[in-house]
Amino acid sequence: MNDTTRERKALLFVGSPKGLKSTSHALGSYLLKKLEAGGLATETLLVGAALHAAKDLAAMHEAVAAADLIVFSFPLYVDQLPAPLIEALELIAEERKAHPPAKPQKTMAIVQCGFPETHQNRPACEIMNQFAKEAGFEWAGGLAMGMGGAVAGRSLEKAGGMARNTVKALDLAAASLIGGGNVPREAVDLMAKPLMPKWLYRLVGNWGMKSQARKHGARKTVYNRPYAA
Fold it and tell me: pTM of the predicted model, to two decimals?
């Protein structure tokens, strides 16, 4: 491994309000470990914390400027990016217009949702692609995953066999990125595969929601429609 590779830096932005306990962090940190094993220096920022104060914003901009690869890992909120992440992207784009980057930089996204279908994440990946263009990044690609609720913030090593395709996808992406490439198509396809049969995911999800309703005394009113015509 040459010295140039060792000097490269990857920055992970965790866009979930759950921070270090989130599935977004579990996915992003796994990729970061693989990049670090390949010789890249790594750093992790929590979007919410980065927006907290002026000094934190300055540190965020410094970290972005220093990175060769910026990885945004976040959950889908209905059909959109989380609001704090949107704010961070806007601030980064403004900063880069005022102070153009001194070197070529790549960015990529890891987006996951609670819906069973991976394609629900497609608009979010397109938004991130557009952000890259407008902010002067090279778009390295997006990895999208459905059924994120099944991971539930656990490390991929603890998620078991259901995460095998997710692990393979991140391994392939890391190997390509370490070599200066982008996210390969094979990684995108593997990441998109369901973690389990859809009927099982829905069954477990419905059971979990009913358990929460029962816990909070709302079991008998969960199907109420007070605003129905």
Answer: 0.91
Contact 33, 8 (CB under 8 A): no
- For residues 111 and 78, the answer to whether their CB atoms sit within 8 Å is no
Domain map of the chain by residue range? 3-195
DSSP string, the chain: --HHHHH-EEEEEE--TTGGGSHHHHHHHHHHHHHHHTT-EEEEEEHHHHTSSHHHHHHHHHHHHH-SEEEEEEE-BTTB--HHHHHHHHHHHHHHHHS--SS--EEEEEEE-SSS-GGGGHHHHHHHHHHHHHHTPEEEEEEEES-GGGTTT--TTTSGGGGHHHHHHHHHHHHHHHTT----HHHHHHHTS-SS-HHHHHHHHHHHHHHHHHHTT-TTTTT--TT--
Distance of CA 211 to the CA centre of its chain: 28
CB 169 within 8 A of CB 187: yes
pLDDT tens profile 11-56 = 999 999 999 999 999 999 999 999 999 999 999 999 988 888 888 9
User: 3-195 falls under which CATH superfamily?
Assistant: Flavodoxin domain (3.40.50.360)
Q: What is the pLDDT of residues 109-137, one digit of tens each?
A: 999 999 999 999 999 999 999 999 999 99
